[in-house]
Design brief:
With about 100 residues, the protein is mainly α. The protein has one domain (about 5-85). About 80% of the residues lie in helices and about 0% in strands. The protein is built from 2 helices and no strands. α1 (about 5-30) packs antiparallel against α2. The mean pLDDT is about 85.
Length: about 100
């Protein structure tokens, strides 16, 4: 059995994309000598911060989620084994000649 945290990929990739776009935009602005625009600097800085926060939060919570999910899957497997064992013990015996 396999499980995937559905929002992790989007959060990780989205966060990297936002931070990367911010870095590329700030680098381009610096190369063109346009770092005097406070609105652009604050906007790109906020975008980069938001992207880094998305990535960091997702990366931080993923191990905890994985531990919880592993424990849940182990519980499911244990219950399935108990159920299978109970079915074997209570199964009627076949009559063979």
């Amino acid at each position: 059995m396999r499980t995937v945290k559905g929002d992790a990929i989007g959060m990780l990739v989205g966060g990297l994309a936002m931070a990367g776009f911010s870095i590329v935009s700030l680098t381009t602005a610096a190369a063109q000598g346009a770092l005097g625009d406070a609105g652009m600097l604050s906007g790109m800085g906020l975008l980069g911060l938001a992207g880094a926060s998305m990535f960091t939060w997702s990366a931080f919570t993923l191990p905890r989620w994985a531990r919880t999910r592993r424990r849940q899957m182990e519980d499911v497997a244990a219950r399935a084994a108990l159920t299978a064992g109970a079915e074997v013990r209570t199964a009627p015996r076949s009559i063979e000649s």
